[in-house]
Design a protein that fits this description.
CATH class: Mainly Alpha
Helix content: 55-70%
Shape: globular
CATH topology: 434 Repressor (Amino-terminal Domain)
Largest sheet: none
Order of helices and strands: HHHHHHH
Number of helices: 7
């Protein structure tokens, strides 16, 4: 059985946004910048907090070299943030489709 490669934090952030172009739009940057981050395998440190705020992907996952280990209780807080983002995305989709 083939072992699956774990997605990077950036790949997970892109998946939350929908695609690299949408993440770029949300961050008010170019899609070429996001594709460059994918190629480099890292989010620029000055953009880590923006990506975290928009996607709910932890800064500790996005930039472990800078942020280190998460504090105690971080996972619970992160779960709440992700639930809020998902709720908002569902509400936005329902409003878009008139549901």
């Amino acid at each position: 059985m083939k072992k699956r490669k774990q997605k990077s934090a950036l790949d997970r952030a892109i998946a939350v946004a929908g695609n690299p172009t949408e993440l770029a739009r949300l961050l008010k940057t170019t899609k070429q910048a996001v594709f460059g981050w994918q190629k480099a395998g890292a989010v620029p440190h000055k953009r880590v907090l923006d990506v975290e705020r928009l996607t709910g992907i932890s800064r500790f996952d996005l930039a472990p070299d800078v942020c280190g280990d998460p504090p105690v209780g971080w996972m619970e807080q992160l779960g709440k943030i992700r639930a809020e983002i998902l709720k908002k995305r569902r509400a936005d989709a329902a409003a878009l489709w008139g549901e």
